[in-house]
Amino acid sequence: MAKTKYSCVYQDKSGRFFYLVELGTDQVTGKRIQKKGTKDSLGKRFSSAREAHKEVMRIKNEYMMTNGYANYDLSYKKFMEESYIPYYKASVQRSTWHSRECGLIQITEHFENKKLREINVRDCENYRIWLLNNSGYSQSYCSLIYGMFRKSLDYAVTLQFLNENISKRTRAIPKGKSVVSYWTKEDFEKVLATVYKDDFYEHMCFVLIWLYYMTGIRVSEGLALNWNDVDFKRKKLRVHHTLEMTNQSNFIRKPYTKTESGLRIISLDDDTVKVLKEWKQVQKYHGVKEFILSYTDLPLYRSTVQRIIQRYAKLARVPLIQGKGLRHSHVSYLINEFNADILVVSQRLGHSSPEITLKHYAHLWSRNDENIAKKMTGNIKFIYAKESNIPHFNGNQAVKI
Questions:
Q1: Where is the Tyr recombinase domain (predicted)?
Q2: Who has the most CB within 10 Å: 38, 76, 91, 250?
């Protein structure tokens, strides 16, 4: 076999020209994809190396157009179990994985043994409609599930299992409007009045509710707080950790927050400083020295925070809210009591930009113009004209007096 001046074209001992083309590696089997021949597409033998070269170029072009991606009977289920799910699990935080695992299983079971390459626009649209009309999920969860499905097909394209993400031809499912309940200042005062601080556990409940309401930190950020995060002299609270917890003997205090912008230092008011100083002494008396929101020196479960909030909400007869509702409450408190500007609120919440703050909390500024309206009253000074300054009305409309 002798090489010619054309790539992939050779001449054997009999003088015949032939091609041997390497088209890559099969993504599943790992075997090389090769094509070899002595004839063109019409079955005619090559009379020159140039003719063989033309056939090589045709084969490569055809392969890239039609078979440039792994061509095999891979099912969607096998793709998910062997490729996407392991990739996704390794790419996100453990807490995120646990919250998404059920959704990924649901998607996998829905398409199950459908061949990955045979999923078409109609299949995607039917799944989208099923989620919205028959799944029984909330619209926000439907949005999350369908978004995960679309991302799985994105990954299939990345691995060259697919030519394109066919689901992108369908519309995404909007999250819909989510209204988060929160406590007003009056609600907060009613809740505090129901707490019996002389009891060690209830005192911790008081500190928990107070700290979340007065700082706006995320639930996982608050659970991770240690006393070395508090600077009593400068009146600052350092928010640089989040808590990931399976149980009280298996937890991680991660040295980062939900986003990079979440790493922040919050200024504390004198009342909060006083609450924390008093609580630190009470904890010390009971042998608790590390976690701020703790009565055993071990971190609380996230579900415990929710139970505490709901327990005192029922006692005070105020709206039942979630943990993130206290974060919402903090924003409402800053706006309605102190007319806080968007930049200050954004910095305290740990958002990367004021636009994100507005996206989630714009409705809380709805009453922010009342003071302006009051100031506008009587601000314009003038005296009505005593007679018309227009010499003669010359319009073409009939004027009835």
A1: 178-376
A2: 76
Sketch the domain layout of the chain as residue ranges: 2-67, 76-169, 185-338
Query: What is the 8-class DSSP label of residue 261?
Result: G
For residues 297-309, one letter each, b for 16 or more C-beta atoms within 10 angstroms of the residue's C-beta and e for the rest, the string is eebbbeeebbebb
Instruction: Dig out the tokens for 267 from the structure.
Output: 């200024």
Interval 177-219: pLDDT, tens? 667 789 999 999 999 999 999 999 999 999 999 999 999 999 9
Locate 125 and state its tokens.
């649209």
Model pLDDT for residues 89-134, shown as the tens digit of each residue: 888 877 788 889 999 999 999 998 889 988 999 999 999 999 999 9
- Residue 90, classed as helix, strand or coil, is helix
Question: Could you give the CA distance from residue 328 to residue 345 in angstroms, rounded to a whole number?
Answer: 11
DSSP symbol at 75: B
Please say whether the beta carbons of 373 and 342 come within 8 A: no
Q: Which two tokens stand for residue 89?
A: 């699990």
Q: Which of 249, 197, 212, 190 is nearest to 323 (CA)?
A: 212
Q: What is residue 335's three-state secondary structure?
A: helix
| Cα torsion angle, 62, 65, 68, 69, sign | negative
Note whether 69 and 28 are within 8 A (CB). Answer: no
